[in-house]
Model the fold of this input.
Amino acid sequence: MTLDEVLASLFGTHTATGLDGPILFGEASLGDGEMVHLIGFTGGVELGVDHTIALAARVIEIAGGTDDYPILFLVDSSSQKMSRRDELMGLSEYLAHLAKSLLLAEGAGHRTIGLLYGGSAAGAFIATVLSCQTLVALPGAHPAVMDLPSMSKVTKLPLEILEERAKATPVFAPGLDNLAQTGAIAEIWDISQPLGPQLAAVLAKPDAGDTRAQLGFARGGRKKAAPIAAEIVKLATAGG
Done:
């Protein structure tokens, strides 16, 4: 789906948005009148320092406002921008700043929902929709924390070994279904139905905190994270 199609399915004509290059800012209203802040990074382009700081500034502005509207973060991007300029300016710190700004917004009372409707990878994925409280995706989205050729370069493991591991272990593998199995993606929405009610259903659920480890355990894609985290909590709180 295109960005226009996604927005129309979510909100009909109840949107006021503007594009600044690949960046989307705006507000929208669900059918029941509930308002939503819109932020987006679109067009399948790389996320560099200039766009990252603009996105973080808007999130911080929302966090400092007087309303508690949820934030819907729409993303269709490439990877982070690995130019010499962006790397020398400290792109990783910019990306961390954006992720922390989303955490700040959560602390200020704003639910944060990431909606992946296209591609995204590496830092551009981690610092945007994956840093939201809830990540949902549309069929056809193609996320990757790291693609297998890049993983091979970092780990020095042959690509053939990683491809074989990826067949059996979702943690090793990019792609929508694998990320869903790990619990990183909470829901894959049905695009044959209007998206607005599906967003309203997500917002109607009580905030249960970070449930990704429990989802990954229940789906069989990440069996160790939840038990290990529970054991750590048990040991840390033993004895009061």
About this structure: DSSP finds eleven helices and nine strands in the chain. Strands lie at 15-20, 23-29, 35-41, 71-75, 112-116, 119-121, 134-137, 142-144, 187-188. The chain has a mean pLDDT of 93.
